[in-house]
Amino acid sequence: MEFSLQVSQNKYLPANGREMHAILSVVGESSGPETVGPARADPRRLVEVLVIDCSGSMANPPTKIAAARRATAAAIDVLPDGVRFAVVEGTERARMVFPSASRLMTASAETRAHARAAVSRLSPGGGTAMGSWLAAARDLLPDDPSAICHVLLLTDGINQHETPQELERVLDTCAGRFVCDARGIGDGWHPRDLLRIAGVLRGTAEAVRRPAELEAGFRATIDAALGKLLPDLRIRVRTMPYSTVAFVKQASPTLTDLTGYADTVDDRTVEFATGSWGAERRDYHLCLTVDPSAAHLEEDQMAARVTLLVQGEVRAGPAPVLVHWTDDLVKSSRLDPRVSHVTGQEEVRQAINAGCDAYDRGDRVEAHAQWTRAVELARLARDEKALEQLRYLVDLEPDGLVRLKPNLSRVDVNVSLLFSSQTVHATGTPEPVPDAPVGEDRLCAACGHLSPPDAVYCEQCDAVLDDPGLSGEAAT
Fold first, then answer.
1. Which part of the chain is the VWFA domain (predicted)?
2. pTM for the full predicted model
3. 143-171 burial string, b = 16+ CB within 10 Å, else e?
């Protein structure tokens, strides 16, 4: 694969400004020979584990377990020959459905038929412990860094047979090993569980309103997983002495906060794993905290450099994130369109979230207020996807009034909470930014700090760097 990286930002900050926001647009494209249809990895590199909730609640109504059987069989049928796969039953513990032993099987006409037969015998009974399900999937995976591993997890219940701490411990051991897409069915599942699993494991969290929709959803999810060509891409952010990373979030197509999962390279460099990639585009929201006491007014200064890496190899960048402190209020008040688009969508989804939380607490007044605010924000941002979702929660009257729907269903509230993790790309092409300087960082003999390769003066102490013999001379 080939990757491109573009940065969108308004580099201008007021003289006392402390936050610099930038949108990192990452595009991956297949670099292999042209073929008909979407690019596909060698099936022998792909691993698929289907984890199906078979707790007692799946029997009520029986359409849920029936839909799960059909959808799982459909997902198995989608797997091409050569893919390694397994099916796991989830209750208060994990049990192998196919194969019967804890190992992977290679997809073929024969193994797919045996797997479908085993899935047809799935029956509900028992509890729910999702951590044990994920641990079983993890233990099936090969110890091969080139393998592209995907888990599809379906549940209808609350993770009530293990503690949140137990689930967190398992998630920590699974992070970076595989991508997990979590799916909900019925009205008894907890959105926060699905969002947490999908967020840590770089997947998506979705749900169906009707069991009959599950089969098509499973096919689409597996088809998307088959389009992945690389197991992981990492975003490296290298800051300057006067800047630090405040947060990094995936902004589209799903909203996921990556900040807590940074891997420290050194005291000024962190990396973020983004999961498996195919031919696609994703946007990331980077926020830097910058120190205005280091400002040289009306000059471009490097705040950070961003690089994309695959297995330690640079695939795009470095791209600069700049800061330019200024007294010109017109320059510093301009909103970059891409940054504005992302922050606008975040505000809409935060309001939807807050309304769902209030509704769960029984506070209908606060739910109505938050969803009304979400409608207003969505209209301002022309976020039609959000407005479409909000129509499941509120009635939008022609006169502009927003009315809470009577007898709102639990499914609609849960699905709306999951929707808050889904976003859309801004349209158009981001403005090009100058290439970051290449080469080794320059070490200051006076204070020991590293500055960019093209720096003349140390960004920490202003000592001259262009002549090793003058490294301790202060800049004038």
1. 49-233
2. 0.84
3. eeeebbbbbbbbbbbbbebbeeebbeebb
